[in-house]
Amino acid sequence: FRYYNYGQSVGAAELQLLVEGLKQPTVLWRTYYNEGNQWLQAVIQLGRLPHAFQFSLDKISLGIYEGVSAIDDMRFENCALPPPALSCEGPNLFWCRHTKACIDSLLVCDLVDDCGDGSDEDSCDPDLQCNFENGLCNWEQDVQDDFDWIRIRGPTPTVNTGPLKDHTTGTARGHYLYLESSEPRQFHDEAVLLSPLFNPSDNGTCAFRFHYHMFGKQVYKLSVFQRTVSNTKGWLLWYKFGNQENRWIRQTLFIRSSKPFQILVKGTVGDGFTGDIGLDDVSFLGCTLYNGAQHYFGSFFKGNLPTIATATWGTSAPATLPMNNCTEEEFVCRASGHCIQMIQKCDFRPDCPDKSDESACVMEACDFEDKGLCGWHQPALEQMSGNYSMPVTKTFKWQLGRGANLHPEQEGHCPLTDHTTKCTPPTGYMEYKHVPPYGKASLEDMAAPALPSLQHPSCQPSSWLQAAGSTQWELCSVWSLQCNKTSKLWTQSGSQGPQWNRAEVFLGIRSNFQVIFRAKRGVSYMGDVAVDDITFEDCSPLLIPDKPCTSEEFMCANKYCIPKNNLCDFVNDCEDNSDESPSI
Predict the structure, then answer these.
(1) CA distance 554 to 581
(2) Which CATH number describes the domain made up of 326-361?
(3) Do domains 127-285 and 544-583 have the same CATH topology?
């Protein structure tokens, strides 16, 4: 409908939903203030309402009658049930029992009555779906994130952001999860929700469906990850940035995995309080719960994914390659002699049966526990200095530390806790920059092992840093590119206090690069720089699927499939820029 709300003291107006059998009305739409001498359009999402309903338009006056509120041109769109069909044949179709409607099979067991008679929601496995009406079901809050998702019904506490109602019932009576962006939350704080574990799904028939709500001027990001090991975030399946208007949006993701896997839903806070994000009606189709259970938990079996042991980095490979027919552009698997594309080396996905293509590569997550360096090393500085002309002095070095055996007067500027374990005193090792009592300024590099030759467009390395003490120092991330040239993409200097601070850099698509932490200190020894929990997020290259792109996906010129929502968003999601072509 169109609405008009104009005048210095016009006041507010709201549209309410009244459903038969429910005493509490549901607010569907609000306007709070003078919106100018113009007609504006409002679109209200009703969803599936199984009972009779009507609307109530309420006006709130400020007592001074200098303003006019009006509505016009009201109409309903797509509100009829699907028509009956004489037949419904095909593997991707479902024939409703009583209404005889023919619907897409992806709409079966998705917590929405698409048939109109409920037959598409009969005989569904309750462990594969959750509408959050009775809690989190078999989903869990992650304990390694910054805060938790909140279960709520009705509107969120902050106006002009977040849902007004849930998706399941379409009323203020239903529950959903949301991410609160008001204080004490800060920009880039993360809340992660963990799914139960699932058995491998090699055929790609496992589908994850969910509904999300991203409304507000300062909404930041919602993303979904898939992982097969428990101490990493896994690889990115889908993400969405920014305000998507006041509506619930359905998303379907197809899951393929040769190992037991888990889904992670991560919400990230924006830079203000109008950034609430909602989540509702999560369901899986064609998936089975992981049966490698260790113990019984509630109404379902819960197993455990393996972990990546950081101490296993750099497993030695045979000195002599096995017999093979690989070309110079291919990588030879060390144990079997199989050939894989060179671009598959160090891409965070083991493609060789012996995983040799991922040995001596950078790890997706490194916490420096168990005395492990994860392959991080100190190269010869003269080889990495590139365009930097400062003198090279070897007066100190990066080394493992754990808060013990400190030199005199170090207690005030060394880390008091390890970031990974949060122990005091630190029990886990971290990689840190110890400054010995030398009088000359000096610098030192810490370089990562081999990285992918090509990354995902959303590649984003991050780490946790601590710098304390009175000395003048500088720490920067240097990315060594082709022709032995280096560029500085992030830097920080001076004391930052005794707490751990998160640092992240958006890389995007780069080739033939290296990650280096470069530290420089002044003349004082009263200061330390520490680094812990280095991760590479969303850096795995895109995969070319072995089946056609779905109707919700766009096929890039290089045959990759990306969500259609990523078209023309100024981001090279395809890696060949075909999703940003002016001809789309």
Answers:
(1) 12
(2) 4.10.400.10
(3) no
> Hey, which residues does 457 pair with through a beta bridge?
none
pLDDT in tens, 264-273: 999 999 888 9
Domain 365-379+395-537 indexed as CATH 2.60.120.200 = yes
Backbone angles phi, psi at 383, to 5 degrees: -85, -20
What integer pLDDT is reported at residue 59 of this predicted model? 86
Q: How distant is the alpha carbon of residue 383 from its chain centre?
A: 36
Token output for 202:
């090699």
Is the alpha carbon torsion for 324, 327, 330, 331 positive or negative?
A: positive
Report the C-alpha gap between 540 and 531 in whole angstroms: 23
Give the chain's length: 584
Close Cβ partners of 114 (under 8 Å, ≥ 6 residues apart)? 48, 82, 101, 103, 107, 120
User: Which stretches of 372-462 are DSSP H helices?
Assistant: 381-384
How far apart are the C-alpha atoms of 280 and 263, rounded to whole Å? 15
Mention every residue, 6+ apart, whose C-beta is less than 8 A from residue 313. Answer: 359, 360, 363, 372, 373, 374, 375, 449
Cα of 579 vs its chain's centroid, Å: 21
| Cβ atoms of 251 and 211 closer than 8 Å | yes
Tokens linked to 574: 């395809």
323 falls in which pLDDT band (50, 70, 90)? Answer: confident
Q: How many CB atoms are located within 10 Å of the residue 575 CB?
A: 20
* Main-chain dihedrals φ then ψ at residue 400, nearest 5 degrees: -75, 140
Distance CA 155, CA 420 (A): 36
**151 burial type by CB count under 10 A (0-12 exposed, 13-18 middle, 19+ buried):** middle
pTM above 0.70, yes or no: no
The DSSP code for 569 is S
Handedness of CA 414, 420, 422, 423 (dihedral sign): negative
Read off the pLDDT of residues 179-202 as tens digits, 9 standing for 90 and up.
Answer: 999 989 998 899 999 999 999 886
Query: What's the pLDDT band for 437 if we cut at 50, 70, 90?
Result: very low
Structure tokens at 167: 């998706």
Does the domain spanning 544-583 belong to CATH 2.170.150.20? no
| Exposed e or buried b per residue across 465-478, where buried means at least 16 C-beta atoms within 10 angstroms of its C-beta | bbbbbebebbbbbb
CATH code at 127-285:
2.60.120.200
What gap in Å lies between CA 385 and CA 445, rounded to an integer?
9
Residue 148 token pair: 């938790």
Q: For 132-167, how does the pLDDT look when each residue is reduced to its tens digit (9 = 90+)?
A: 999 999 999 999 899 999 999 999 999 889 999 999
Domain residue spans of the chain: 2-72, 127-285, 326-361, 365-379+395-537, 544-583
Per-residue tokens: 386: 């590139």
- Chain Cα centroid distance, residue 528: 32
Q: Is pLDDT above 60 for 54?
A: yes
Distance CA 223, CA 205 (A): 21
Q: What are phi and psi of 564, to 5 degrees?
A: -60, -25
In angstroms, the CA 2 to CA 75 distance is 10
